[in-house]
Specification:
The chain is built from two helices and five strands; from the N terminus they run ββββαβα. It is of the alpha+beta class.
């Protein structure tokens, strides 16, 4: 995991696994894989819960990384856009989390002043 401008970067790697294009990353020592061609996307819920938990501990972004063995430009574009959209959503969630923490802190401070 790299850090740039105080934002941790986590590689999100597009690779081939069992003849399928998989987008995968490691969050807190657990590997999450997204198979764009599968109808079963139940693992996405686990992934998004892990993202939310990670986000509560500090700001981070995913960095799109393409495996050099890939040659499908369409899936590469989809994967790159997916990571960009995910980072935008993470930024939005992070702002909401910080706002909620600040509101809670202000309420607690106001209660202690009374």
């Amino acid at each position: 995991m790299e850090t740039t401008d105080n934002v941790a970067e986590i590689d999100f790697v597009l690779r081939i696994e069992n003849s399928k294009e998989i987008l995968s990353c490691d969050l807190d020592k657990i590997n999450y894989s997204i198979d764009f061609t599968s109808k079963d996307q139940s693992k996405l819920r686990e992934f998004f819960l892990a993202v939310l938990n990670k986000e509560r501990n500090g700001k981070f972004h995913f960095k799109y990384v393409k495996d050099s063995s890939l040659s499908n430009s369409m899936i590469e574009k989809v994967a790159s856009e997916y990571v960009t959209a995910l980072n935008n959503e993470i930024d939005s969630i992070y702002i909401q989390i910080v706002d909620e923490i600040e509101k809670e802190s202000a309420l607690k401070k106001a209660e202690t002043i009374k």
